[in-house]
Write a structure and sequence with these properties.
Number of helices: 2
Structural class: mainly beta
Strand order of the largest sheet: 3-2-1-9-10-11
Largest sheet: 6 strands, mixed
Distance between the termini: 20 Å
Shape: globular
CATH superfamily: Metallo-dependent phosphatases
Radius of gyration: 14 Å
Number of domains: 1
CATH topology: Purple Acid Phosphatase, chain A, domain 2
Order of helices and strands: EHEEEEHEEEEEE
Helix content: 10-25%
CATH class: Alpha Beta
Amino acid sequence: MIIVMSDSHGESKIVQEIKTKYQDKASAIIHCGDSELDATDSIWDGITVVKGNCDFDDGFPDVTVLSADQVDIFVTHGHLFSVNFGLARLTAVAHENKCEMALFGHLHTPIATIEEGILCLNPGSVSQPRGQYNIKMYAIIEPTQESYCISYLDINHQPIPTLQFELPRSSK
């Protein structure tokens, strides 16, 4: 189980709640940037985090690659790869890094799609949602051999009924 959140914009309480809920259950907890917290904050112990366009602490990396649940994952905030204009650049850099997933923030809206064999996922925002879903949310990804089971949850940890997906997983 991989937990993905993003765009908390100073709201450390929800980041801590998600961390506490999943730290002993998840293989990875990932924050896709715009936390507006210090990179040295102890909240990041056990969380993979990247720098967003609203993060001014240079202690955060712009991108990171990790493995969880036997999946190689590319993580970034998204602004450096022009995600506002499509996912082609993000998908290309995920391929360059030999990753099966590209997780990103920045847009504050849920996105779960397979592009060029890469799962591209935006978990929405845990503090400032935008777009069709005015719900503070995060995502859980459960990879299987054949698919990615994706569940978006609100900050009360309840599944959002219209945001539950099973997407096919490409064979390597």
